[in-house]
Amino acid sequence: MPHARRRQFILAAAILLLSASELAAQAGDPAAGKMVFNNACRTCHTLTAGDARLGPDLDGIIGREAGKGQGYAYSSSMKGAGLHWDEATLDRFIADPQAVVPNNNMKPFTGIHSQQDRANLIAFLKSGG
């Protein structure tokens, strides 16, 4: 194989491998997400419907309208955010809550910066625990 063609082949293979690993990362692992939840979320949230703590329960969060769940006194900014929690919105919010909904009650939580941890957490939330 000529040198230029071999280089193109190696470059194409590297791009495919990176794309495959990125897709795998985006899929998320619920078991790893449980650890993220326990370390970053469990102090304030549960997955048990109606069990609001410092934050609202996250039971069935996917598809829920932001600030509309029962049994929790949401901030006015969350109530008026006009968001529906889908995977993309949750990902943005978990990464930086104040950037997505300024003046929400998530303080002192500043976000989860690892894309993989967020994907795992969202997979865990989707699984229902």
Question: What is the gist of this entry?
Answer:
The chain is mostly helical and 129 residues long. It contains 6 helices and no strands.
Please give a structural write-up.
The chain has 129 residues and is an all-alpha fold. It has one domain: Orthogonal Bundle (Cytochrome Bc1 Complex, Chain D, domain 2), CATH 1.10.760. The protein has helices at 3-27, 30-40, 76-79, 87-95, 97-100, 115-127. The relative contact order is 0.18.
Q: What structural class results from the helix and strand content?
A: mainly alpha
- Give the amount of beta strand, in percent: under 5%
How far apart, in Å, are the first and last alpha carbons?
52 Å
The average pLDDT score comes to 86
> Which residues sit in consecutive blocks of at least 5 with pLDDT less than 50?
16-25
Characteristic key phrases:
129 residues, Cytochrome Bc1 Complex, Chain D, domain 2, 6 helices, 51% helix, 0% strand, globular
